[in-house]
Amino acid sequence: MSGNKKGPELFDALAHSFPPGSITGAPKVRAMEIIGELEGEPRGPWCGSMIRVGFDGSADSSVLIRTAACVQRGDRWHVVARAGAGIVADSEPTLEYEEMLVKARALRVAAQLDVPL
Length: 117
Prior knowledge:
The chain is an alpha+beta fold. Helix content is 38%, strand content 21%. The protein contains four helices and four strands; from the N terminus they run αααββββα.
């Protein structure tokens, strides 16, 4: 998506654009409710958005579809890496799962994690 918006309208446009339907499915609100029920925990930054707004009014945004985050649990830090696959009506579950593993493996290699997938 691209366009030109300035002032408060920019933030309204961004607020109504995220999360995108390519992440949630449709209808968006009900799909998000189902995702929340099935996943059982917040996604954190994964499948969220990163938005940069410049002082000149420019903006860039991205959906974080493959994400690694550092999370503190007690006195230890952990790297949490998440990846997913797009599910549509004719998806083959095994192929989608294998695609997700390939995407997650790329995160593991980038972070130099010695964790089998």
